Amino acid sequence: xxxxxxxxxxxxxxxxxxxxRRGDGSHRRGLAKGGRTLLSVLPLLLLAFTxxxxxSVLLPQEGLQNLMGPDSGWRGLLRAQGMGMLMxxxxxxxxxxxxxxxxxxxxxxxxxxxxTSWSSLSLLNALWEAHFxxxxxTLIRWTxxxxxxxxxxxxxxAWFGGTS
Amino acid sequence: MRDYxxxxxxxxxxxxxxxxxxxxxxxxxxxxxxxxVKTLLLVAPLLLCAFLIAGLIQVLLTQDKVAYWLGxxxxxxxxxxxxIGGALIxxxxxxxxxxxxAxxxxxxxxxxxxxFVSAKNVWPVVRLPLxxxxxxxxxxxxxxxxxxxxxxxxxxxxxxxxxxQVEAIRENLK
Lengths: 164, 174
Hints:
heterodimer, A: mainly alpha
């Protein structure tokens, strides 16, 4: 068992123990809920990971490193921000894909820009937002947020870029 | 929504398999698929933990609780609570946007609403185990630290710069 699995087992254990101690069957419902979610996204996960397999064998690593690698500078971050906005789908699809890009050579800053841009500026998400709350709100939030994915990437490179 | 995603993703997989076939024949088609499944199996224990955590959080913390908790907070206190509520609330956009709309109807300010949505986007407690599992501890921690101030900062900015727009936004709610 690797360190990451172990680190995740701790909160899982604590939450499970807490739910179990409540004595109202929360622990069983939590397990069932997690299992159901996993089963319902399993086809998506399979497709997402197959995509990843193909991206890994097809994508020229050198090209990716030039585009968004650690030495691609603010242009690389800008590309990551644009790519994040266009990425469709929820975390089950997008996070596995981003993790592959990261392993193939995307820089730390660019990867963080990618995650931030996808999760907060995704165009698909903006459609949901405009539908439920209205375009005016989406426009305000979107405009204010626009510089942040890039800034966050720059900050991450400056703070954490050196170590690997 | 999900069926739609599956169709798009299925199409992408077919396109990629076609590209693999063109550049390396059936051998590369197989290599890509096997590589993908291998990666999935490699992270399977992590995924199991991540989904277990997500399931338990969703049972222990219902959307009503978060909405009740947020109440009609205003000013910096409202923005602060909205950040925590947004971070904790489980569910996709079809869950938290209707809740955000309900908060708006109940009298929440623009800053509170922006802080709530931003916290859901950058500090989502339910998504974090998955992110940790797939991207690793170093990247997850670096991302959390660098984005830490975004939700409250954006809430304040929105309130200060466009706070008066909230009436117009509220009027347009269906």
